[in-house]
């Protein structure tokens, strides 16, 4: 009477055990990876190197990836596309966007008019969950979440992006290979 | 005349140069040996540096990683960066440690391994530092002094992990030392000399490698050698997951790296002895003809052959380390005492039987050429010896299976199958009933 019913090994299993087949199987696997690392450069057969050399080789992120925010500008006039409509701030579930608008006096056809333009745009990336609802809410395709993923900074204040950072992109130190 | 001690003259082109400055005897007995010693120590130190690089690279490749790539091309300067780091690190001695023993234990470890290089025949003629007629004994004796260093390091650290590591290593090394020494005897029975150069020439003159006569002994020697060097899968003394770092837990900086140097150098020693005794040392068929009468070229090519053979064995070390998990402690002792030592004893008996059979067959077939200097065999005799050698593998396996039939073995399935329920209380528990149903 045994605690666990284990089938008796067949002759093939016994022979495998006698010749230590599993040991050689394991060694064959590691050898395949070792040879593959030297010959199979792009891991075609699946035994090459999977590591990316990160700072010199940038990983390809998925097309649906959402990263650092950006405020797009008109490519010709270089004026902000933002019309300060505040829709993004309303759409944001995390409430991390602050749109600060100001009125400017201008004359349209000789008559004085007031126009609401963007003064400052505050985007708190530390609270952002990169859902891109703001991007979808934006009527002028101004606010966009790019594929840039290096968002680390040295302080909490660094996570709060202002208009200049959003338009020009944040200055970051890039390592050369 | 048999001398107990032989030194070799330098190669002719160097001899002429050296004779300008020194006398003949000074060159042969002082200057040239010192040059050889310097070369070997430098090479072994460089190897110890680059072994860490190779280890990291090979482990990385086996795990589909890249390994060190930053310092220099392909990270080739990484060992130098490591050495600089280790040299500039603080040399810490724990407050409660025994300061003298703690400081000198690494030196014993390094010295013990480096002395053994003095008798390893790297090549014929001027490629040998010295040819002592007890060479193999010297290697075994001195390399077992290395255990002392580990015990002293573990003991003097005054730390429980270090002490446990030291004790483990001593137990392990003592048990595997036996099978390692015994497994070499089979080869010695064919070579009939303890001199390592003599063993190599015995194989060269017979044009055969002793691994063919002694496959069982080779396997035993390799396993015991790996265990002796505390390499995975037998790296219990420094088992990271249970003992922090074993005997060198408290060590830092250069003293720590001395232990590692000793470990990598000891690997070379074991690989060198395995090459000499089982793989024919510097002998490779056709090399003598390839050199075409030039003695220096012949020695150089032989040196290359020796290094290539050793490199294969050293790669095996890395390969095994990154393939197999660590043994449990009792399994390690089981393997040593219940499998390796009986197998090596059987190998001695089997080798004696082989030589007896060879002599007995000599009348019918033509097997033995002469027995004066080692066992010189004819073609037929070699065939018989090789057959007997490989038959020995199977006989040993059957013998060991018989010997250990009642002992705990590594087959957990078998253990589970054979657990008997004893003293099951009345109203048998659910587990027992289920088992009974199964049965």
Structural write-up:
The complex is a heterodimer of chains A (about 180) and B (about 450). The mean pLDDT of chain A is about 85. Chain A is built from five helices and five strands, in the order ααβαββαββα. The longest helix of chain A is centred in the N-terminal third of the chain and has 19 residues. The termini of chain A are far apart. Chain B is an all-alpha fold and about 450 residues long. Chain B folds into two domains: about 80 residues, no CATH class; about 240 residues, no CATH class. Chain B is built from 17 helices and four strands. Chain B is globular. The chains are: A alpha+beta (about 180), B mainly alpha (about 450).
Strand-helix topology:
The complex is a heterodimer of chains A (177) and B (439).
Chain A lengths: L10 H8 L2 H19 L29 E3 L15 H5 L5 E12 L2 E14 L8 H5 L5 E3 L14 E2 L1 H6 L9
Chain B lengths: L4 E3 L4 H8 L4 H39 L15 H11 L10 H18 L13 E3 L2 H22 L3 H32 L4 H11 L3 H4 L1 H14 L11 H4 L9 H26 L8 H5 L3 H27 L7 H33 L6 E3 L5 E2 L1 H25 L8 H7 L11 H9 L1
Antiparallel strand pairs in B: 1-2, 3-4
Helix pairs in contact in B: 2-3, 2-11, 3-11, 4-5, 4-11, 5-6, 6-7, 6-9, 6-14, 9-11, 9-14, 11-13, 14-15
User: SSE order of chain A in H/E notation?
Assistant: HHEHEEHEEH
Q: Tell me the domain tally of chain B.
A: 2
| Strand-pairing-aware structural class of chain B | mainly alpha
Shape of chain B, please?
A: globular
- The share of residues in helices of chain A is 10-25%
- The low-confidence runs of chain B, each spanning 5 or more residues with pLDDT under 50, are none
Principal-axes shape call of chain A = elongated
The largest sheet of chain B has its strands arranged as 1-2
Hey, which two chains have the biggest interface?
Answer: A-B, 28 and 30 residues
Number of continuous helical runs of chain B:
17
How many β-strands of chain B, per DSSP?
4
């Amino acid at each position: 009477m045994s605690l666990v019913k284990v089938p008796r090994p067949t002759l093939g299993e016994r022979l495998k055990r006698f010749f230590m087949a599993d040991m050689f199987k394991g060694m064959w696997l590691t050898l395949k990876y070792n040879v593959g690392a030297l010959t199979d450069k792009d891991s075609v057969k699946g035994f090459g190197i999977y590591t990316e050399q990160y700072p010199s080789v940038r990983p390809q992120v998925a097309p649906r990836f959402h990263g650092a925010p950006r405020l797009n500008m008109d490519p010709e006039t270089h004026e902000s596309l933002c019309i300060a409509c505040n829709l993004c701030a309303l759409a944001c579930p995390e409430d991390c966007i602050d749109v600060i608008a100001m009125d400017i006096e201008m004359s349209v056809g000789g008559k004085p008019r007031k126009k609401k333009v963007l003064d400052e745009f505050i985007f708190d990336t530390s609270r952002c969950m990169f859902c891109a609802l703001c991007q979808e809410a934006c009527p002028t395709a101004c606010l966009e979440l790019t594929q840039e993923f290096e968002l680390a900074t040295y302080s909490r204040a660094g996570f709060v992006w202002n208009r200049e950072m959003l338009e020009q992109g944040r200055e970051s130190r890039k390592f050369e290979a | 005349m048999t001398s107990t001690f032989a030194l070799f003259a330098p190669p002719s082109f160097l001899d002429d140069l050296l004779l300008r400055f020194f006398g003949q005897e000074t060159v042969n007995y002082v200057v040239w040996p010192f040059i050889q010693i310097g070369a070997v120590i430098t090479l072994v130190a460089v190897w110890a540096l680059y072994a860490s690089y190779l280890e990291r690279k090979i482990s990385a490749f086996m795990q589909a990683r890249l390994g060190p790539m930053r310092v220099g091309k392909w990270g080739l300067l990484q060992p130098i960066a490591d050495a600089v780091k280790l040299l500039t690190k603080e040399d810490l001695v724990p407050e409660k440690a025994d300061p003298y023993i703690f400081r000198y234990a690494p030196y014993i470890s390094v010295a013990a391994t480096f002395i053994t290089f003095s008798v390893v025949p790297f090549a014929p003629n001027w490629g040998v530092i010295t040819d002592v007629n007890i060479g193999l004994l010297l290697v075994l004796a001195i390399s077992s002094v290395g255990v002392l260093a580990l015990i002293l390091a573990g003991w003097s650290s005054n730390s429980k992990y270090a002490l446990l590591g030291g004790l483990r290593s001593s137990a392990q090394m003592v048990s595997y030392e036996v099978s390692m020494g015994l497994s070499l005897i089979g080869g010695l029975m064919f070579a009939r000399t303890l001199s390592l150069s003599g063993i190599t020439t015995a194989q060269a003159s017979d044009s055969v490698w002793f691994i063919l006569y002694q496959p069982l002994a080779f396997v035993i020697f390799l396993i015991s050698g790996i265990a002796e060097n505390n390499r995975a899968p037998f790296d219990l003394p420094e088992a990271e997951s249970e003992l922090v770092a074993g005997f060198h837990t408290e060590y830092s900086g250069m003293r720590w790296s001395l232990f590692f140097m000793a470990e990598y150098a000891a690997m070379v020693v074991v690989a060198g002895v395995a090459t000499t005794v089982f793989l024919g040392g510097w002998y490779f068929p056709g090399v003598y003809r390839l050199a075409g009468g030039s003695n220096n070229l012949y020695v150089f090519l032989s040196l290359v052959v020796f290094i290539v053979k050793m490199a294969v064995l050293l790669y095996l070390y890395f390969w095994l380390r990154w393939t197999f998990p660590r043994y449990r402690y009792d399994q390690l002792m089981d393997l040593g005492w219940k499998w390796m030592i009986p197998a090596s004893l059987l190998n001695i008996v089997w080798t004696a039987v082989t030589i007896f059979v060879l002599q007995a067959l000599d009348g019918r077939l033509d097997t033995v050429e002469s027995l004066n200097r080692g066992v010189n065999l004819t073609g037929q005799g070699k065939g018989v010896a090789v057959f007997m050698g490989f038959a020995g593998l199977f006989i040993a396996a059957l013998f060991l299976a018989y010997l250990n039939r009642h002992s705990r073995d590594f087959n957990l399935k078998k253990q589970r199958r054979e657990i008997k329920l004893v003293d099951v209380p009345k109203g048998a528990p659910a587990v027992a009933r289920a088992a009974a149903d199964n049965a």
